[in-house]
Amino acid sequence: PYAAARLAVQLWYPAASDRGAWAPYRRGRDATGLRALLDRARGLRTGAVENAAAAANPGHFPLLIYLPGWGGRREENSVLAMALASHGFIIAAIDDPVPAAPMEFDSEAAYARTLRRAEAKLAQEAPIASALLDRLLALDRGGTPLSGRIDPDRVGVFGFSFGGAAALEAAFHDPRFRAAANLDGWLFGAASVQGISQPVLVLSTPISEPPPAFADVGTGGDLSSRLMARLDAADLRRTEAGLARHGGYFLAIAGTEHANFSDQVLLSPLRALTGGGAIDPHRGSAIIAAFLAGFFRQALTGIPAPLLQPDGTRPPEVRLTIWPAPASHPPAP
To answer: b/e string for 291-317 if b means 16 or more Cβ within 10 A?
Structure first.
């Protein structure tokens, strides 16, 4: 049972002071060897103070749980976590808690195995987010630096890639997650079929119009690309159906590729080696952070986000589609 396992958690939060040692980007087993040499060569560090005292806040801070991509690490979206902390959120990030073989798309049989593997992995990972929330709320009560800082009624969950699917699935099963965001992840599980009733933001690479149907793998191109395109099209249909049913936001950012939704594109000036798109990596990161901060602030605190309003002014790279929530949905707190 997962309850018997140990899980490393990395926390970002508003600090009382910026005095102290800068936190390293990587730690533990990833802070040694070749990665550490590369980090030092690039001058890689965070802009966060290690073990800082938490800022005082009589109203408590909203809490966001971050779930990484398939095989991902808790530091993979540090830039985004620091940006959200600067907006008054506490962020708790974990490593991929359910190791699994990589996704495969080199044959129809591999494609089918990948879908089964993803569903099985998701069924284990979503409850872990709830277990982590239990422990974090205990920290809030237990004489730690975060004691009295976490608002248990203002909790969100988000994730990158497969972590985005896990975030929505966790919210589907646990209503304590009042909002969820998916950073360019394919959906699986119950949330992919039924959607979630909480406020949801989906961030995505540009979507072709109209999206390819790919009822079969067809011809042309390599088989792997065609199978992934099939999954792309099916995922878009499921995502839009869930948003139409419950309401939410779909944000497509021109010039991005999958890697733009993590730190990967910021770790090297050689964009061709990072898998990023044509957008300037720092601009893309800033756009993602601004929309996430606005979304979670609106969903968890009730403060409207100008970027998400129908008549809002948005960056030219952004295409935002808004589905209104049904009238039966309760208002934001």
So the answer is: bbbbbbbbbbeeeebebbeeeeebeeb
